[in-house]
Design brief:
InterPro entries: ChyE-like, Class_I_gatase-like, GATASE. This protein is α/β, with parallel strands linked by helices. It is built from seven helices and eleven strands. The strands form two sheets. A nine-stranded mixed β-sheet has the order 2-1-3-4-11-10-9-6-7, sandwiched between helices. The protein is globular, with a radius of gyration of 16 Å.
């Protein structure tokens, strides 16, 4: 099998490793079957998409809607590299699954708009599939409604031209979409469990996702949530797109 490519942007080693391990487990892959590149650590370099079964992009603290003068040189480089890769992915309809930050990367293509209109606080919320989502080969593997962990400052307020809306919440109309046949993005995190989201709440306490006094209540609510279905998305992605 050709490996999948995993792209990360998290600077915290423990959180970055936890994210990779969770994606690895959810996909049901071995480490040699999920090649990792940490974009915050260095340039992406040349990527021959023919070498991979597909591409998975994780989340992170970068936001496409951050003011340009507030973005670090690393963030600007990563954004430029991901934009160029996303254009190639869409043009070739290469299997792609971007979670959270991935929806920002894809959401700014071809007339799409990503801004601060539909941010949601950290926690678990019910996500509902649209009719197109229920019929979709990837998202359709999930129940019509399911709880998912999320937490984001920005969201898609206008879909890219030709994109198909697949899922929404009451507070964020675009929680998943597809471009072409094989390019996907989700606003929710398919890889997260209660332990991982609590660790991220701790790791990103200074990033403006919540007020300091909310930390323990957010963690308690996350532990009480019943989030079981989203991880199936990762295994389904591999099932659909793994190739010799």
């Amino acid at each position: 099998m050709r490996p999948f490519l995993f792209l990360g942007t998290r600077a915290e080693d423990d959180v970055a490793q936890q994210e990779y391990d969770a994606v690895l487990a959810g996909c049901g892959l071995r480490a040699d079957e999920l090649v990792r590149v940490r974009l915050e650590a260095g340039p992406l370099g040349e990527v021959d998409l023919a070498d991979f079964s597909g591409v998975i992009l994780g989340g992170g603290p970068f936001n496409m809607s951050d003011p340009q003068d507030a973005k670090s040189a690393v963030q600007r480089r990563a954004e430029a590299e991901l934009h160029a890769l996303a254009v190639r992915v869409v043009e070739a309809d290469v299997p792609f699954l971007g979670a959270c930050y991935g929806i920002g990367v894809l959401g700014t293509l071809a007339g799409g708009v990503v801004d601060r209109t539909y941010g949601e606080p950290i926690g678990a919320l019910p996500v509902r599939l649209t009719d197109e989502g229920r019929a979709d080969p990837l998202l359709g593997a999930l129940p019509h409604e399911f709880a998912a962990y999320l937490g984001h400052k920005e969201g898609v307020s206008r879909l890219p031209d030709g994109a198909v809306l697949l899922a929404s919440t009451d507070t964020c109309p675009v929680h998943a979409f597809r471009i072409g046949r094989n390019v996907y993005a989700t606003q929710f995190h398919p890889e997260l469990d209660a332990v991982a989201i609590c660790d991220r709440i701790d790791a990103y306490s200074a990033h403006g996702y919540y007020a300091p006094h909310e930390r323990e209540s957010l963690k308690a609510a996350a532990r009480e949530a019943m989030v079981t279905e989203p991880v199936r998305l990762l295994g389904r992605f591999v099932e659909l797109y793994a190739r010799a």
